[in-house]
Structures are given as C-alpha cells and as structure tokens.
What we know:
It is a single chain. The protein has helices at residues 2-18, 32-38, 56-63, 67-73, 80-93, 142-163, and strands spanning 22-26, 47-52, 99-106, 120-126, 130-136. By secondary structure, it is α/β, with parallel strands linked by helices. The chain has a single domain, classed as Maf protein. The protein has a five-stranded mixed β-sheet with strand order 2-1-3-4-5, with helices on both faces. The longest helix is centred in the last third of the chain and has 22 residues, at 142-163.
Amino acid sequence: MHDLLALGARAGALLRQRGEKVAVGETSAGGLISASLLAVPGASAYFAGGAITYSARAIRGLAGISTDQMRVDGIRSSSEPYALLLAAEIRARHGNIAWGLSETGAAGPDGNPYGDPAGHTCMAVVGQSRVVRTLRTGSDDRFANMQAFARATLELFVEVLESAPSP
Length: 167
C-alpha cells in the first residue's frame, strides 16, 4: 500500500504544480485510487471528487451513464471504450475540470459476465490528452488485483501528467 500512497502523493504534487484538479471514477479498485490521492494533506487543492461505479445503479446515478445507451453504442463495462467514457463523464460531472481518471475491470476471484478473466482492467485518463490502457495480472487474488489496478491507474496518470504541456 505504501507504493499507492507514494503514487498518490506524486500525482497530487504534479496537479498542485499545474494548478489543476482531477475527478475519479473507479470500479474494481474499490476506492483505492481516490484514497491514494486523498491521503495527501491538502488534497482538496487538486481532488474534485470521485465515484465508485460498481453497479448499474451507481453508473447511472454517479456517472450519468445509461447502461441502455451503452448497449446502443456497443460499449460494455470493463473495456477501453467504457474506461474512456467513464473518465470523460466523471470529469464533466465535476465541471469539466482538467482531468478525468477511470478504472473498470474484474478483481476476482472470478471473471466478469463479458468473458474477461479475474485480473483484467482498463484505465483511462481524459484531459489535455486521452489515454487508455488495459492490464491483465493473471491472478485471481481479489485484493492483490485491486491494488494492482490502483497502482497501474495512478502510474498511467503520473505518466500523462509528466508528459503533458504546462497549462
């Protein structure tokens, strides 16, 4: 967990330097991404809010994404298109702040209804750029996967922040 705290601190420092804020939408990481960012004193300077969109009701209520519309558009949870959509929508729901960050996957011990195995997640960053990535850990250890998902999402976010032009 210490590596998550270090990544949250690094992302927070970069956001503070840039004068920017982030909103987080996560599923399988279960709040670890948000907790890592919020564990830093002064997080209110850069953390706009977050949501754990673990169910269809939460997706609709917290992110404003209709599962019916997802079906029409051919988007499913635990996919790169959905990760991008979630990051964009969570960002928009917080006033189109600088960054939206998302994660969606299957922590385990079983896979999801879409055929993805335990240890599968997709993560996205939406802001000055749009970046999406998939991770498969090959593990069915739920908590280890949750930590791996949070770590990979924060690493991606730090990578994007470090390469983004100054505002």
